[in-house]
Amino acid sequence: MEIQRIILIVDDSKNIDRDIKSYSTIFEKLKEARNLDYNLIFHTRKKYEEAIELLQDPDIVFDVVIVDHNLSEGGNEHSGDELIQEIRQHINKHCKLIFYSMGDLAEIFPNRLDLINLFNLGIFRFLSKDMSTSSTTLFGSGQMQLRVETIIDAIQDIDFVQVTLERYFAEYREVISDEMITVAGKNYSVNEIINLIKKDADEGRLYKSNLAESVIIHNILTGGK
């Protein structure tokens, strides 16, 4: 069973549904070319408040969130960078954030300090919407392919403990569906632990720390064998 990577795109473009179809088509071609072992599931929201509501859903934890700077066409009172601040400060400190806009950063943020503060929130990458892939093999428009390639890059940068657990869970799902993991005296399913790691929650960090400690102890006791 393949891993599902969940992507949220917050963009008030009228063409967003068409764009998602292009992203999906390009990804399937890149998946085959690069031998990727996961699928992409896309969610979209045009309004700031709707995006916040979805991001706060306890049953969905996004791997990558792509945010358009200008959300004014959707009647939003908040900009994309305000959404990024809300995500990082109150919702998810760990997901990969991709920020894009029609203009360049100097135009969007004439005050350099505002730009520095934004990137200090942990932006994985900034894309101008007119930027195109450098690949010589195209599976669609160059602009669309670059965005998909950036999503793939972001996924490759995901925490290795999370990735290892996800692959383990995907391979042995039927065997370990009822398996529970105890962290700080509370039992969690493997999937819950993965989500806690994705959110960078205290329990997720504690599990990773405990796991690293157990690996070190095992290596000491076995002499690294």
**Percent of residues in beta strands?**
15-25%
Count of helical regions: 10
What distance lies between the first and last C-alpha atoms, to the nearest angstrom? 30 Å
Q: How confident is the prediction overall: mean pLDDT?
A: 86
Describe the SSE topology.
Layout: E1 3-10, H1 16-34, E2 38-45, H2 48-55, E3 64-68, H3 80-91, E4 96-101, H4 105-108, H5 112-120, E5 123-128, H6 142-156, H7 160-171, H8 173-176, E6 180-183, E7 186-189, H9 190-198, H10 202-222
Parallel strand pairs: 1-2, 1-3, 3-4, 4-5
Antiparallel strand pairs: 6-7
Helix pairs in contact: 1-6, 7-9, 9-10
How would you sum up this structure, described in words?
- The longest helix has 21 residues.
- The mean pLDDT is 86.
- The chain has a five-stranded parallel sheet, sandwiched between helices. A two-stranded antiparallel sheet has the order 6-7.
- With 225 residues, it is of the alpha/beta class.
- It is globular and about 55 Å long.
- The protein contains ten helices and seven strands.
- Helix 1 packs across helix 6.
